[in-house]
Amino acid sequence: MVTTTVTVKFHNPSLARRKEWQRAAQLYRDTKQFCIDGWENDDFDKSVTTASIDNGLYSAIQNQAIREAKADHQEDGAVSYRQSQPFALNNQNWEIDTTENGSVVVGFPCISGWWYTPVEVYDDVDDAVRRVLNGEADKTRLQVYRRGDDWFCTFSVECDTNPDGETAIGVDVGHNNLLAAHAEDTDESMLVSGREAKYVRRRFRSLRESLQEAGALRALNRADDKESRRIRDLNHTASRRLIDWIEQFENPVLRLEDLEGIRDGSDWRGVHSWHFHQLQDFIVYKAERAGIRVEKVDPEDTSQRCSVCGEYGTRDGDHFSCPSCGRERHSDLNGAENIAQREGEPCTA
């Protein structure tokens, strides 16, 4: 089973629609809190139904709130929901369709009735959305939520097999780990530590500062050359290990972040001299020689979004956690999973 998380923004919903969605989010929170409080106070048992809930939400949304509250209560016991909750519907109670002019619309019940609203489908999820529309894949639970002034919805698309028979390999290039790779729809991942490379960079930075103070220009040039050779050797070794690992998979397609412009706006001083592009060039070159197709994908939010539900999570060093679905993962491998899920532009034949 191949699962792709789809997050899309609603296109210019009316004020009335946005107000109703905001009200639904508040009622969703109240419904979940009503259930939690009732179970804690022994007012009713876990078989509570929508007949016990007196608010304007459609019963499909109330039922989903009950299911989520039950899961939260089983895991954490007493819970206090302090903020509006993204309201949700199971896969049978929402629709995705196209209009006569080709716009994609998402429809679901709320309070006053069903709303069908256009959504903005970006390139990285277009293929998954088209598969649902063509009946080639199944959709899962829909979540509707607000971020700032905009409204979004997120759901997953499930296919029995990859129609192209490919294994997508997402590769995240960084400084804590030179490489983090994940093979989609498998439990296979790999990490190549960046510890030695960081040591080399620190050592030669300190050496350059000393040589600059002493005015030893020739020695400074030799130090630069020596550092470049060390980093080049590390990049060659890391890229070779990656390609050897990828070759175990049937019909792999390797996906990398498009790092053009990564230096722009960065506040990390090491990024100006770090050999991200050199490492990517080595990966692409070795992959091409091995007959592995490579794609470059949009890097936006790959390190910030959860690779399971698509929500923004929290990154603390090597640890990524998602407050929405509870997923916990190595942060670089979470990024690699996001990269693997995105459709990219080919950069090799």
Automatic annotation (TrEMBL):
Signal peptide range: none
UniProt keywords, alphabetically: DNA-binding
InterPro entries: Cas12f1-like_TNB (IPR010095), RNA-guided_DNA_endo/Transpos (IPR051399)
Domain of life: Archaea
Positions of transmembrane segments: none
Matches recorded under Pfam families: Cas12f1-like_TNB
Ranges for domain Cas12f1-like TNB: 276-339
GO molecular function, one term: DNA binding
Protein name (record): IS1341-type transposase ISHhu9
Organism: Halobacterium hubeiense
